[in-house]
Amino acid sequence: MSASEIKELKEHVEELLDGGEDPYSIALFAITAHFLATATKKEAEKQIAFFDETTMDFDMLINAEEEQSIQLEIYTMYYLLSRNIKMFIKSVNWLPKFTAEQKQTILDWPNSYVLSLFELSVQSSKVTFVDVKDSQKYGLDLSTTELISPKDAKDIRLFSLLVPAENGYACEPPLFSMISDSSLAKLRKISDRKAYELALLKELNRSLDFDFEGDAFDDEVMFYPALRKKGESDKGFAKRLLALDEFFQTFKHYQVAEDLLVKIIKTFPQLFFSNANAYVLLEALHELFYKQSFDEEETVYRSDELAYFWTALIKEHLPEEVAALAAYQIDLNEEGDFLPF
């Protein structure tokens, strides 16, 4: 990455902080991005050697570097916290606009991070991650009335890395885990924490070993990678994704939708990667532009859907932008349109 691109990264971090985003969540993204951008050939070789230990596919790593995929971000942050603290400290010292107190909290992450599988619990509008290995509970630095834990919450497992924040914990964007119950039972028997973490990374790689070509996994599931092309602007990326959906091509408030998607791309850069499905995000955008409401039972029923997760995430972190959509929302049956689920 050139000096100008490092400067652009710095300005992007400053813009997010000025916009009121949680500094510790931003630090997770910024530290990883800075390390990947500035690592020497020797440092890169050390990182690749670590990825070899976890059996991460090298081709996937190369393809994901530009886009900062969630898996790459989690694995890289874990590598820095557990294997290369020197480079971690270097990237922390680079962080712009962070206070000395905030940096000190971040510098303690190598001693306090938690990498594991978690079950999601939401009670009294407070989000808690429950470690499936030891049942330890971690309250996230997040409060929301938009997320309601499904009745079968223990059937939903998330893989992530948690770190202490100002109030509770911050986390890397989680990955939905497809690790089997039998594999999980074996992982739980590993007493040494470092051995457990490495075994978990290996098992996750096996569970995420997708084999697909083109834009679809199969004929029944529509799939298009939510992946930014090299050199593509936020606006160009948003236009390309919206072009996938006929609804938005004929939507009378198209510009409003495009502006919102650009804002989403800027706010959640780490959620746009090769294995993320753009159609799920487009479905969430549909919902935001329809006049609708869900009672508690309906919300519980839908709360394990990926589109609902996107909708809740957008409402939580972009409340002003979502509130402004009221002037552009349409009835469910207007012009024959309907929700795509």
Description:
It is a single chain. Strands 1, 2, 3, 4, 5 and 6 form a 6-stranded antiparallel sheet that branches. Residues 64-68, 143-154, 210-220, 294-301 and 333-341 have low confidence and may be disordered. Helix 11 packs across helix 13. This protein is 51% helix and 11% strand. The protein has helices spanning 3-18, 23-38, 41-54, 58-64, 70-82, 85-94, 100-107, 109-112, 181-188, 193-207, 234-242, 246-249, 254-267, 278-288, 296-302, 306-317, 319-323; strands at 114-123, 126-131, 137-143, 157-164, 169-171, 175-176. Strand 1 and strand 2 form a beta hairpin. It folds into 3 domains: 3-110, no CATH class; 113-207, no CATH class; 234-336, no CATH class. The protein is α+β, with helices and mostly antiparallel strands.
Give the CA-CA distance, first to last residue.
41 Å
Radius of gyration: 20 Å
* Biggest sheet layout: 6 strands, antiparallel
Number of domains: 3
Order of helices and strands: HHHHHHHHEEEEEEHHHHHHHHH
Strand fraction band?
A: 5-15%
Shape: globular
Helix content: 40-55%
Uncertain segments are 64-68, 143-154, 210-220, 294-301, 333-341
Structural class: alpha+beta
**Secondary structure: number of strands:** 6
Question: How many helix segments?
Answer: 17
Q: Provide mean pLDDT, rounded.
A: 80
How do you describe this structure in short?
With 341 residues, the chain is α+β, with helices and mostly antiparallel strands. It has 17 helices and six strands. Strands 1, 2, 3, 4, 5 and 6 form a six-stranded antiparallel β-sheet that branches.
